[in-house]
Design brief:
Elements lengths: L4 H16 L5 H9 L20 E4 L2 E3 L2 H11 L6 E5 L5 H8 L3 E6 L2 H13 L5 E4 L12 E6 L8 H5 L1 E13 L2 E8 L6 E8 L10
Parallel strand pairs: 3-4, 3-6, 4-5, 6-7
Antiparallel strand pairs: 1-2, 7-8, 8-9
Helix pairs in contact: 1-2, 2-4
Bound molecules: S-adenosyl-L-homocysteine.
S-adenosyl-L-homocysteine binds next to strand 2, helix 4 and strand 4.
């Protein structure tokens, strides 16, 4: 898919909009400025690719709002070469943003169709990401521990298995709450304990158990 001057111009405006909403990490803003969001959209919504909203991507799921992607990425404090696990590949947009930030990205999706589609798309765009089909509640024990973990679906609680797969000093960002809305939670693995902090209200599709 072509990335035209018009797309690039719209992305610059989107970056400024997100900056205006309080995102200050330049590496996050740079990544949002680079990833062609129009390639990740469902065909019916392409005209809205650079609007700061979530949109349906099929399978009852959504591509996250760019501000939310930026907020979670900023809270994670991703440094180049860090190993990052994403739960909920969806469209693959968040994974591409993390890749642009220099992370080594592992991502899990429970819906086979989305897993297949995003794997093909990201390979075509030359985003070299490790894709896994399965239940994100289990994490990826074979590749653990991770520097950072990001959950992009709303969980009812903080899964202990995922905390275990964090390195000491690692960070996990996860929206926690009921289906009507969640609170963004940052879990810092400050061994022997964890430190939990709250970072505002968001709305995500649910983090479901099992795979389809
Ligand atoms: N990060 C995505 C947002 C996807 S929405 C993006 O940038 O587009 C959340 C995704 O989490 C959905 O695709 C949903 O199918 C997936 N999901 C929900 N529960 C899951 C689980 N237990 N394991 C893996 N993926 C899950």
């Amino acid at each position: 898919m072509e990335d035209t001057y018009r797309h690039k111009g719209l992305r610059r405006l989107l970056v400024e909009e997100i900056r205006g909403k309080g995102i200050t990490d330049e590496r996050v803003l740079d990544a949002i400025g680079k990833v062609p969001r129009h390639a990740f959209m469902d065909s019916g919504f392409i005209a809205f690719s650079y609007k700061d909203s979530a949109f349906p991507i099929g399978g009852g799921q959504t591509i996250s709002q760019p501000y939310t992607v930026a907020f979670q990425s900023q809270l994670l404090q991703v440094a180049p070469h860090e190993k990052v696990l994403e739960i909920g590949t969806g469209s693959g947009y968040q994974a591409a943003v993390l890749f642009e930030m220099g992370a080594r990205v592992y991502t899990i999706e429970r819906q086979r169709e989305l897993f297949v589609k995003s794997q093909q798309l990201l390979a075509a765009l030359d985003y070299r990401i490790h894709f896994h089909y399965g239940d994100g509640y289990a994490g990826l024990p074979a590749y653990a521990p991770f520097d950072k973990i990001i959950v992009t679906a709303g969980a009812s609680e903080i899964p202990e298995t995922l905390v275990q797969q964090l390195k000491p000093g690692g960070r996990m960002v996860i929206p926690v709450g009921e289906s009507g809305g969640q609170e963004m939670i940052l879990v810092e693995k400050t061994e022997p304990d964890v430190t939990i902090s709250r970072h505002g209200a968001f709305i995500f599709v649910p983090f479901l158990r099992g795979k389809t």
